[in-house]
Amino acid sequence: MRIICFIGLQLFFFNGVRPVLASQEVTTMAPEAISQAAQDHVAQLTAQANGRYTITPPSLDNRLRLPECPEPLVTDIPNTNSLSGTVSVLVRCEPLNWQIYVPIRVQQVLERVVAKTPLPRGSIITAADVDVEQVELRRQRGASFSDPAQLIGSKIKRPVRLGEIILASDICLVCRNDAVLIKAGNDGLSIITEGKALSDGAMGEQIRVQNNRSKKVITGVVSAVGEVTVRY
């Protein structure tokens, strides 16, 4: 009688009931999907900024196991004012309350004039000496040039190596003790005379020059190679 009752209890508890597994397999997010969300966020920001950018996709560990998000991933770049270098993008799944930082390598590149050949101090820049290349912004350490015509005829103040960006501080359109043309006057009248530069100057900079005839020292603006303009 006890055996019959035991069998009946077994049928009551297990008949038609699926077994419950100790652990069930959970669908996980593909690392590529997380990486793509971070890239898309950076691409959207750089599309609104000036210049040209290159974005290097991150390499996420394939062993990463995060539950698949039932909603689109939310992305953000907290606490940053720069889109150059390594940018940490915060990717999060709000419904499941998980988040991960994804590092994205971002390079801002601009067209800049570089030395096509080593340029020693005192040399005069010609068209054959320079070239225009796409240069990462982080390599630039000062004011530079995008048009070679801005440098042709200027003098090198300090040696520039092959491939280096030519900076405004590396050259002078008018150099100290150079013979210069002094253009003086206003919109209606212009007088041109010869003089001597008393200091170095780049395009648009004010320098002192001495008039060869009157020996008078005046201040003018560098307007071209070997040329200073004085406005009255």
Automatic annotation (TrEMBL):
Pfam families: ChapFlgA, ChapFlgA_N. Its main location: periplasm. It comes from the Bacteria. The keyword Phosphoprotein does not apply. Keywords: Bacterial flagellum biogenesis, Cell projection, Cilium, Flagellum, Periplasm, Signal. The keyword Signal applies. One of its GO terms (cellular component) is periplasmic space. It comes from Photobacterium lutimaris. It is found in: Periplasm. One of its GO terms (biological process) is bacterial-type flagellum assembly. Residues 112-171 form the AFP-like domain. InterPro entries: AFP_Neu5c_C_sf, Flagellar_FlgA, FlgA_N, SAF, SAF_AFP_Neu5Ac, SAF_FlgA. NCBIfam families: flgA_cterm. Belongs to the FlgA family. Involved in the assembly process of the P-ring formation. It may associate with FlgF on the rod constituting a structure essential for the P-ring assembly or may act as a modulator protein for the P-ring assembly. This is Flagella basal body P-ring formation protein FlgA.
